[in-house]
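Priority: medium. Attachment 1 of 2:
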């Protein structure tokens, strides 16, 4: 009995070890995932084994059968698909321990199916790429057949017969024509009358040799086409490998539209860079900046409009071209509190640059734009309050006009820089940033002295990995969500700067008036600013004061907010 007690625990341990070992080496389908872009829908089966599979096409249904799956019963049976996917229905069927996945397609070409081996901590991946349009394969003209390399061409050299010239390496139709001409010359005679003639033996030799030449040429064409197809498949495989090296991005929270927006929301103009005839940067895979920016801008508007305190307005909502100066004008028409321009960067080939960045207007460009406004080259384009104040003061007091415009410009650039820091902080928690601080630059879309503006480079299309990421819908949503979080953080943390000053807010809406006050005992600039709902800086600017000192009986012009 005691011996049996010793044997049972040992047997149980061995059984448990066998069970764990069997489970550890089980052939499981771990996950099925899908995403779509403008060109295709990709489905990936994540596996912990190198799969054996077969495929079939039954009408509009594509079937892939994965053999000998241990978790065939519990393997994933549902798949989340985007609206633009060509897959309209996804089903799972079983045949013994084989798993059959059925994809009902709409207007798709034959999918490209391949297996990627484990790398970078990932398991085996069975990849299915469904093109969004059927591929049109046009036959290539014979003249376009590529010349083969010397080693391949040498295998196609004919032996030659009869009185013909030495063999010619026939690898293109031009070579075949040259060989035919040379053969004809060597097997015929031109008489005094200029007519070329052949003997029966020469004619027979000519016919035999021509059949060889044409056969060699046809074989060369087939081999060249096979090489082209092989190269194309290898290139597609390499591109697919890079796509899978870039991890799928999980989707951020879904924005929900508000039912009761605030009466005076914080208005954010969102500019999708480029558009229409201007594609912007184009990556090596053909991803266009104008499409990336519009996708991110559209998602950003959805997040902004999910907050009752905000209202997002798109500068462009379709693939149209909008002039750079017109973009600022549209923002003013919206009475925007912020202007955010979305872009994707690009650099010369060979650079490894990557990461998001934020750009704000440089001081030199701001001063040049302010000078234009003071000279009348655009003051009418400013928000109504600033424009009206400048119009009413520049003739009477040029110093005052310059001061007001400088204050507005400095404040908007300061706001843009602070907002840019908040957005970079949020982006840095999700993706790589190119620079940790906003970058000053002379950019046309940022030149408005009356609207805090910044330009966001969401990444580099010239970087092969970021090009893939920027084309992924979930990655675009995450970038938009980070920008929204930065705006929200700025709105909550910097209320004083966000509202600017009460006087500047009044100037933007035309709600300020100037009153005359005679200084009395106990008055000071701070007391007067509080009494008239103004600011010390603006009172000093209106009266050309260089210090805070005032005297009894002095008359002051004070901008008052109604």
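Attachment 2 of 2:
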């Amino acid at each position: 009995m005691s011996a049996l007690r010793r044997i049972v625990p040992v047997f149980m341990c061995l059984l448990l070890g066998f069970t764990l070992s069997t489970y550890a080496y089980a052939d499981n389908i771990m996950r099925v995932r899908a995403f779509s872009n403008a060109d295709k829908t990709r489905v990936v089966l994540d596996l912990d084994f190198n799969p054996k599979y077969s495929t079939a096409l039954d009408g509009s249904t594509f079937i892939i059968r994965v053999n000998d799956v241990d978790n065939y019963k519990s393997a994933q049976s549902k798949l989340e698909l985007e609206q633009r996917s060509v897959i309209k229905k996804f089903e799972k069927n079983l045949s013994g321990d084989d798993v059959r996945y059925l994809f009902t397609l709409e207007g798709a070409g034959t999918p490209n199916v391949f297996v990627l081996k484990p790398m970078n901590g990932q398991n085996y991946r069975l990849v299915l790429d469904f093109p969004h349009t059927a591929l049109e394969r046009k036959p290539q003209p014979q003249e376009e057949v590529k010349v083969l390399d010397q080693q391949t061409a040498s295998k196609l050299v004919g032996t030659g017969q009869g009185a013909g010239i030495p063999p010619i390496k026939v690898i293109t139709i031009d070579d075949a024509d040259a060989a035919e001409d040379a053969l004809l010359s060597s097997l015929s005679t031109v008489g005094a009358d200029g007519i070329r003639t052949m003997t029966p033996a020469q004619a027979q030799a000519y016919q035999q040799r021509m059949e060889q030449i044409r056969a060699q040429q046809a074989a060369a064409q087939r081999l060249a086409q096979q090489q082209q197809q092989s190269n194309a498949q290898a290139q597609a495989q390499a591109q697919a490998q890079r796509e899978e090296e870039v991890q799928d991005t999980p989707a951020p929270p879904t924005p929900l539209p508000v039912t009761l927006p605030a009466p005076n929301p914080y208005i954010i103009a969102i500019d999708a860079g480029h558009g229409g005839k201007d594609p912007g940067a184009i990556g090596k895979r053909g991803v266009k900046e104008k499409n990336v920016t519009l996708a991110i801008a559209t998602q950003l508007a959805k997040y902004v409009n999910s907050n009752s305190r905000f209202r997002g307005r798109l500068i462009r909502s379709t693939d149209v071209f909008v002039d750079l100066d017109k973009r600022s004008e549209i923002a003013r028409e919206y009475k925007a509190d912020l202007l955010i321009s979305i872009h994707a960067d690009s650099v010369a080939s060979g650079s490894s640059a990557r990461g998001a960045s934020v750009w704000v207007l440089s001081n030199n460009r701001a001063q040049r734009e302010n000078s234009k406004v003071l000279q009348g080259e655009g003051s009418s384009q400013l928000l109504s309050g600033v424009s009206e104040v400048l119009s009413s003061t520049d003739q009477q007091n040029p110093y005052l006009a310059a001061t007001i415009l400088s204050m507005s410009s400095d404040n908007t650039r300061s706001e843009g820089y602070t907002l840019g820091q908040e957005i970079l902080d949020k982006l840095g928690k999700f993706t790589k940033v190119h620079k940790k601080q906003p970058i000053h630059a002379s950019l046309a879309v940022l030149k408005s002295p009356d609207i805090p503006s910044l330009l966001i480079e969401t990444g580099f299309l010239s970087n092969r990995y970021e090009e893939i990421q920027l084309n992924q819908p979930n990655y675009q949503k995450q970038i938009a969500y980070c920008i929204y979080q930065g705006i929200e953080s700025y709105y909550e943390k910097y209320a004083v700067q966000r509202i600017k000053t009460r006087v500047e807010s009044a100037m933007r809406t035309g709600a300020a008036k100037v009153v005359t006050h005679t200084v009395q005992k106990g008055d000071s600039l701070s007391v007067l600013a509080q009494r008239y709902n103004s600011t010390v800086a603006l009172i000093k600017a209106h009266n050309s004061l260089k210090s805070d000192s005032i005297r009894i009986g002095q008359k002051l012009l004070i901008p008052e907010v109604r």
